[in-house]
Amino acid sequence: MPHKLLVGIFALLLALPLTSLAQNKTITGKVTNEKDGTPLPGISVTPKGGSGGTSTSGEGTFSITIPASTEVLVFSGVGFDSRDVNIAGQSVLNVTLKATTINLNEVVVIGYGTQRRREVTGAISKVSGDKITALPTPSFEASLQGRAPGVQVIQGSGLAGSGSVVRIRGVGSISAGGDPLYVVDGVPIVSDPFLRKNDGGQNQNPLATINPNDIESIEVLKDAGSAGIYGSRGANGVILITTKKGKSGKPRFNYNNRFGFSTWAVRQKFLDGPEWLQMRQEAWENDGHTGKAPLPGGLTWDQATKNNTDWWDLLTRTGFINDHNLSMTAGNNWLKSYVAASYGKDESYIKGNAFERLSLRGNFDFQVLKNLKIMLNTAWNRGNNLRVPAAWAGGIGDAMQNALPIYPVYNADGTYFKNGMTNPVFRREESKWRNTENKYIGQFAVEYQPIKDLTLRATANIDYTTSFDDRFESALHNDYTDGRPGIAKRYYFNASNMQGNFTATYNWNPNENSRFSFMGGTEAQEYKRKAYNSDIFAYTDKPFWKNKSLYKHVRDSLEASGARTLGEVDAWTFVSFFGRINYTLKNRYVLQVLGRADGSSKFGPNNKYGFFPAASAAWIITEEDFAKNINWLRFLKLRASYGVVGNADIPSGAYYSKLSPGDLFNGNPTLYPDNIGNPDLKWETMRNVDVALEFSILNNRISGEVAYYRKTTIDQLLNTGIMYNTGFKDAWRNLDGGKIQNEGIEFSITAKVVDQKDFSWTVGGNISRNSNKVISIGQLTADAVGGGSNDTRIIPGYPVGTNYLVRYVGVDPSDGLPIWLDVNGKTTKTFSLDHRVPVGSVIPDYVGGFNSNWSYKGFDLGALFTFAIGGNIYDGAAKRQAGVITDWVIREDLKDRWRKPGDEAKYPRLTMNTSTYAGLSSEWQYNSTMFLYSASFLRLRELTLNYNFPSTMFKNSRIRGIKAFVTGMNLLTFSKFPGGDPEIARDFDNPQDRNMSPNVTYLTPPQQKSVSFGVNVNF
Amino acid sequence: MKHIRIYLFILIAATSLAACSKFLERPPKGKLEESEALKTEENVLAVLNGTYNTLAGGTIYGGRVQIISELMADNLDGQLLSEDFGEIYRRKTSIFGDYKGDYYKEAYLIVYKANKVLQYLVNVGADKKDRVEGEAKFLRAVAMFEVVRFFAQPYGNTTDNSHLGIPIRLVPDIKPNDRSTVKEVYAQILSDLGDAARLLPASNGEYASKYAALAFLAKVHFQMNDFAKAYDYANEVLVQAESAGSTFSFDPTIDTRWSLGQSKEGILLIKNRTGNFEPGKDLRDRFRSDVRLPILYFNNQTYSQFLRPNDKRKAWLNNTKYADKIVLTKYNHDQFDLPIVHVTEIKLIRAEAAAELNDAQKLTVGLKDINDILQRAGLDKLLSGTSAALIISAARREREEEMIGEGNRINEIKRIGVRNNQNIDRRGSPFNCNGFILQFPNNEKAGNANFVMNAEGGCL
Question: Is residue A942 a contact partner of residue A317, using CB atoms and an 8 Å limit?
Fold first, then answer.
């Protein structure tokens, strides 16, 4: 049991005698900026080759007690060149540090430890906290877009709190989750977007509650050399989130806020009432009918022509953004603390939709003894998502679907018009929906150094979530006529994710040239989720969140009667053993070997444990004598890694053949088989090669990295592709003979174009090319693996998520009928699903971002462009919006249709009868390249102007600095896609759909565009 | 001191490792693990019991079998149907379409469950073993019979029935398989039903009895135009029905067959238990006409069948409630018991089979069957000595009326098509045109590249 393990770890620590250290000396001093002499806080001061250390206070001062034998102190800090200072005979040191553009000595978090940037052997991208908070994105992970090479971030829709699809160096999974593992301060947190399935056209995003202002930095582990330490869960990469920690010195405060306005970035346009009627009539007459076309919704032509409702307009608004953060950091020799509180509310442009975030965090480091440190990191976050239905579920989706411009909002008698659609205005007014998630993350760690160079660390972590899905429907909404005022419903669950680990790190320097670092550890994790077997409900006139006592009463009575029980619905565990050895020779050759053995309750009894090794190496060429004389070359490193990592992101209990008890039948008990189990079920395996060159030239004014990788995934976890005549639609198994390859090149560069005292200009950017290719899917055929209802497939020779469509040639000018290509490329006028071929890919060829920053005196102007080149968008709703004329809205571009012989048009003759287009079975099967578009886009993701008030202004006050800013997000979008926003991550049905169908839209609300401003005050 | 630390560490590591194997087992709460659970007779019986629930559920006999049948046949007015219903009605189903795809999967779920029960039959006590085996085989046969009629050209479409039928799955696993011929499929169905008739008791409560198996044997042989056997099995069922103390018998009036507890016609009848299990909801949802205009309504040609003077069954259709729409009233109930196979149908089989056999003695029996039905409907009886040909046409006509909305017509179009090489479809399709059978769901081809799909299109 992990509990035993944890108790054991603590017992072990307590059993250790407290060794007293012999013969110490104390050094004090101050660290300042070489450029202007200002004190530098937060600079770490460590004895070279020894252990322990401190960091400078807010005034740049430090005091460190070290063994008398120590000769050299290392001063290092973010944004500065580190320095080794000989302390022979000194007790007071004043040190100056020089700012750098490329920070080779910056500390990089690598999972169960840290490394200096220059010695990192794996592929790790670091994004600092200020980049994460630069934009009012719906959730922190969206802010990674364009910031890190090899990391593709497709932000979800414009709904408040929506999540992003994050792909690190492509996707190699089919049915198993393709998302990276998210780790906050060493705690692997639950990021599953399917905890509430696909509800209301949105996947609930558990990451949205995390306060971006608490984030110090994010490290993205991309290859086996780095993510390998996470073993069976590292294949999709790992995102390490490090929160802000307390710094030495007197209490310092930071307050920042943001106010802003949001609207949609790009939307599609639909026909208004008169135009819609005209197109319908034309279709009717084309079909050989005379007279007026029948109208939906029970309307006569007279009634219909009187209406011209703009549903989009009725459902949207200008949203208001409002954000406040207050934090404090303080520290002395015993205690360092970071305390922060935050409130934010982001209203989307959809009426009734907002995400409200509250958070509190306290991070405390207690230096109990010189060699004993206790750390407590704790945070409480609440996300209130005021939900609205979207996409297929209606609401704003209705305005893109069957809320027709010819329908009125109200009938003549003032009641809601409800024919032919769910009136979205009625629904908004008569129902309420709120999703509340409380997330508590707590970490308790003890770090003990029994002897020099040996650090033992025991950690106990908890990530606990409570989730409330509250709905209210009025009497009018539910047609209650018996006096019931309405109904309040709540769907509740809680999830506890507990984890404990123990690591031992030993540094050994056998001689001047060799440095070893050994790390070994063990870890246990247990996840449990509990939910009620059904909703808690009461007939009442307001939602439960406004009447908590009623909820408690109803819940208790339902529980007492046995009608509702809170039971475990999901549980899984991991037990792991891992180790890592680093060897540095002559400061220029670095070798790292690591391995992790993972056992999990998710794996079948025949494959309980997997082992995942990786090896990596770096050669710092500029340390070689031959390179030392090349003046323009400041730093050059070649690194390479190879390793095996796994993916275990599948539901719990999948390998069991399960039977569920059901209701009585004929008075006797029943049992229902849930699935066909599989005792062989195991992780999927990814083999990964990474080779990269890191460089810095021309006095560090230009720096960058070029990387190549190849990831080969085998034993794909598959939950589809079985024949229906088994009695089931799916069954979990490892795909026999499956092989998917992601191969790519990443390039990133930063250049300081102008570097003067008052004016500087920096440009930077990254571009990644990922080539995704399915090598084999064993015995399965092209239709075996589909991405939900999204018409994407997995086909050998093509990328994961290939559009599999009938090719559309154009319109025959003589009769206006569509011309297709059959599989052999011959034109035909008969549509057939047998003509489908792989024609497009939802994966772009290149993604990336580039930025430019200008600083002039107190002003900073920054711009970030993000882009995607290549790949396709498939608009799954277009077949109804711009296909056969049905009771759906009509997209504006359908105006370009054939009307009479001789017309050259984009779209065929209009019809209301599927049989007009020969071979078409139903309007849902009208999937062709007619609705396949280029996915390339360029977006001005961020444009920010900062002004730093001169420090002379508040010389005599407590204030240390004030910054004011104005930021525009998604101000400009360049794309050829006629269906609205070209950046699409729709609502997904399951991980397979999510892996295969980004860039497939189905009534997806476009992203937000916003302008916001605020101040940031330090005092 | 140092040693103590090492020992402690080893101790902790050892205990934690030993505890690991148990820590790594998380059987889902509230679920039973099959191989453990099915060691008991009680649980095997519970799986079997749940199979009836599936059989009577909305995806099979609780609605979808009848609805798909009616959509494909010629009784409905389906001009304005769209999406899945539209493509089934227009006899042009494609590899997609969840409505029929889910039906197919659910029918095979019955096969899977029956196979599971048979796999664990060893754990059932000797006193119940025959009954359990008989019921499992009955359920498997019934599910396959409906599927083969939807997804394969009819029995007799080729002289040796070597044309492709449906996959036969007798072992509950996920191995890919191919379609068997229609001959093989019918042989399997008959073998299962034969075993069931042999193993099952004459009376088996609400579960399948020997007579349910015999009734289905009659239905299957009738579908095969094998009239001698159809007659014999139907006769065996009806002799029982006519005997004193039988649990099933011919209803004296027309309006009880779809009712709550008023009908004795069900040879296999799923009882309604309000609040617990209410079979037939899907059927009511699509046809029920007293509360709103249903999505499915009938055409004039069908209505004209009911216009003989005094025909009480005219009340089953209503052409006045909704302008220009002919709706069904048969299912206008909040609940009803669901007959899976009933006496009227078996009587119609016996009558027509008797006439086909043209055996004097049997003809008398058959004539009486027709007259029972005519009389109940308020119509004049046929005279004794009516020719076999006339009895056949009477049986066919009464069948169309009696079983309106019950999904019978499509099978008659095909059976008679084979029997007489005649296209009786009033919408003008050849009985064995491509679209007259459903296309298999794409998953069949997806999971097995060699799977032969049906040819598509070209019926209307």
Answer: no
